[in-house]
Design goal:
The protein is an alpha/beta fold. It has helices at 2-37, 55-71, 86-93, 108-115, 150-159, 174-186, 198-206, 217-226, 273-287, 290-298, 308-329; strands at residues 44-48, 75-79, 101-105, 127-136, 138-142, 165-168, 191-194, 212-216, 230-234, 261-268, 302-306. The protein folds into 2 domains: 44-136 and 260-329, D-Maltodextrin-Binding Protein, domain 2, CATH 3.40.190; 138-234, Periplasmic binding protein-like II (D-Maltodextrin-Binding Protein, domain 2), CATH 3.40.190.10. The longest helix has 36 residues, at 2-37.
């Protein structure tokens, strides 16, 4: 009797183990679907490869705040400046592709491949595009008593090759490439004086260290409106809304000359498509919100909110464009 009971008990125990194992397997299979459906289940890190207060940082914080409601989780901006943005971008490229680390960066991601001999990322292969967030034109300015138009500045520069200087926020910035392209298109010789940011580049113009400055619109816009500097042209496809009297470079006689600075959101390559889709939809919705639009415009950007395919096309196009400018301008990779 005791042996029979033990045998029956063993059979029952084995059945329970098998049944439990099958349930565990079934539960294990179901868990990923539940986890994907619950994304995000915790806060999301947003890496910005620049110091606080810059254009990409401002846009990142506006979008991060707006995404809290649709995603139900906080997006925490983490500034990781250094190495011309390569440190922060590389950190994002190596992050776990689970949707809990994102990157918001400006044009450095498409310029740096042409400026550095070695970088810790590939702008196409290392990332899954999420959203082409916003754009800002470059503003080319001089002092009011130096030139009243871009044509007049070009005439002066042609008459005195190598005499004049221009400032930018730094080596390899969109501002530098914009003026270098202008030099090629206009046939002028002016010397680049790089600074560590937009404000000191503008200050160099105000103090007479340089005769021209290239900078993103937000940095010099107020000075231009106040008449303290003269805005000669903007580099966008259209005139900037808050500077309606300033012509584009296209209108100034340079067809096809467009060099916008963009802000884009990326995830590490390999991030599940369902997560990318969820993020892309959420970003598209918040970028269409009037409150977000107002904040983005106040920061000196024009909102786009384009999806993954829009950002992917921009990256491919601008990597090739910037490589061409760097090569023709004779800028040596570092």
């Amino acid at each position: 009797m005791n042996v029979t009971k033990c045998g029956r008990s063993a059979v029952i125990d084995r059945r329970r183990i098998v049944a439990g194992g099958l349930a565990a397997v079934a539960f294990g299979i179901a868990r990923p679907a539940v986890a994907q459906g619950a994304y995000p289940s915790r806060s999301i890190r947003v890496i910005v490869p620049f110091a606080p207060g810059g254009p990409s940082d401002i846009i990142a914080r506006i979008v991060a705040d707006a995404l809290y409601q649709p995603l139900g989780q906080s997006l925490i901006v983490e500034n990781r400046p250094g190495g011309g943005a390569n440190i922060g971008i590389g950190l994002a490229a190596r992050a776990e592709p689970d949707g809990y680390t994102l990157l918001v960066t400006t044009s450095a991601i498409v310029i740096n491949p042409s400026l550095y001999k070695s970088i810790p990322f590939d702008p196409v292969k290392s990332f899954a595009p999420i959203s082409d967030l916003a754009i800002s034109s470059q503003l080319i300015s001089t002092m009011p008593d130096f030139a009243s138009s871009l044509a007049e500045f070009i005439t002066k520069a042609k008459a005195a090759p190598g005499k004049y200087n221009y400032s930018s926020p730094g080596l390899g910035t969109q501002a530098q490439l914009t003026v270098e392209l202008l030099k090629l298109r206009a046939g002028i010789d002016i010397t680049h004086v790089p600074f560590s940011g937009g404000p000191p580049a503008v200050q160099a113009l105000l103090t007479g260290t340089v005769q021209l400055v290239g900078n993103a619109v937000p940095t010099a816009e107020s000075l231009a409106r106040e008449g303290k500097i003269r805005a000669l042209a903007v580099s966008g496809e259209k005139r900037w809304p808050s500077l309606p009297s300033v012509p584009t470079l296209i209108e100034s006689g340079y067809p096809g000359f467009v060099t916008d600075t963009f802000a884009g959101m990326f995830a590490p390559a390999g991030t599940p498509q369902a997560v990318v889709d969820r993020l892309a939809k959420a970003v598209k919705d918040v970028m269409a919100n009037p409150e977000t639009i107002a904040k983005v415009r106040k920061a000196g950007f024009q909102p786009i909110g384009g999806g993954p395919e829009v950002l992917a096309a921009r990256v491919a196009r601008e990597v090739a464009f910037n490589k061409d400018v760097v090569t023709k301008a004779g800028i040596q990779p570092r």
